[in-house]
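#onboarding

Welcome to the new folks! Below is a worked example of what a typical request in this channel looks like: someone posts a single protein sequence, and someone else replies with the predicted structure as tokens. Don't worry about understanding the tokens yet, we'll cover that in week two.

Example request:
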Amino acid sequence: MKILPATPDHHAAIAAIRTDVVRQTTAIFHTNEWTAPQVADLIAARRAAGRDLWVVVDAVGTVLGFATYDRFRGGDGYDHTMEHSIFLTPQARGQGAGRALMQVLEAQAAAAGVHVMVAAIDADNHAARQFHTALGYAETGRMPQVGRKFGRWLDLVLMQKIMDDQPAD
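Example response:
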């Protein structure tokens, strides 16, 4: 496995992975699917802000997943708090791809001065919660019935990791 910044060659695969997650799971509460041009626009916007979208590829270059991060909320008081997204193909789960992606993502975020990284997870997604706990994230909030998908209400768990020990100015 290799972790790389996404290139145009990866756009269609990234869109396909996210579309599968949207259609099949509650890992993301959104129902909008991405196209390759939308992925290109997202990557351009993230790069302009100093953030990359990373992919994990196998030995032949097949995209197995991706991860990215962006602002947690608007307003300059949140400049040092980011929320990440990570999505893997079913065959990549449990193989170390997610951990490898997160190590690169967190290293980039820490180098950019990110103080807190947030994960927003479906409360029923026990595997994602365990994954984040293993990476040092702690549950900091639970929001009942804030999402709706597949005809049911979804609870959101917020987890966070403090990335540095920098004091506030």
